[in-house]
Amino acid sequence: MIVRLTQLDGKLPNLALMKIARHYRDRGNEVVFSKQIERGMFEPEYEAVYGSAIFAHSAPRVAEFKAAFPAAVVGGTWNVGDNTTVETLLGLSEQERFDYSIYPNFDGSIGFTQRGCRLRCGFCVVPKKEGRPRAVNTVHDIWRGAPHPKHLHLLDNDFFGQPRDQWEARINEIRYGGFKVCLNQGINIRMIDADAAKALASIPVRDDQFKVRRLYTAWDNLGDESRFFAGVNLLEEHGVPPTCLLVYMLVGYDKRETWERVMYRFEKMVARGIRPYPMIFGNRNRGLPLGGSNKRIGHRTLSEFQRWAIRKAYTFVPF
Asked: In whole angstroms, what is the distance from residue 137 CA to residue 170 CA?
């Protein structure tokens, strides 16, 4: 049989599609991978079609894809109401068994050492899909081996939520194995302790290009200010300065949110040398109530704010 796999968004390799590819190829089937949502003129008829999308704003692309392939199964976190995982869909384990051949230009290794999360945030699908945190793979399970570089993209949602002996073992594998690691889903800065801060300072944490020292985390709402900065201070105390932090900044979720509250969080981080990265919940093209007395940004949208922040325009022009 011939199976079509379609990545609908995202820059990194899609693990679900890699796992599906491995599943079908192990059974002697032909796998066709594409990022195109429309059916090509000379494409064959497929016995199975799968798509995967991460972001809610990809819903129009999902709709177009489903119009072109009505029988397609589309998974991913784009739809928070669907808790189906590729493991339950195909009866697979959580062990890292991937087909990297669909991403021939990717030379790193990617996967999870843990699944699940200790928290139950209303905007996040992880606890519903994955449950409580647990260890699932070692670094040895994830790394593809020589000649591939020792670059690990760990997609863990709550690295320090797995049992302590497990995260300590993973830190030791990274440290003594000479690995560089990108924790691009972010660590939970509100719940780290001194031991976790020391552990993070002891390993080479990098951005997703493995070029600069980078640790990813999040500040989702104003009410977490004291816990957020307690974590920032703890990391700095043990050797991870604020300038290494890229912080996913949730905007558009809190019903009490105003531009004044958004800019307060933003400016607090910039003052510490932290790099904010706005993550928009819901409609990207809507604005917010002003709050306070600043009337200059009332016409701005969340999308414009995100673009301004990501491009670091705040270093030379006010929003």
From this structure: 9
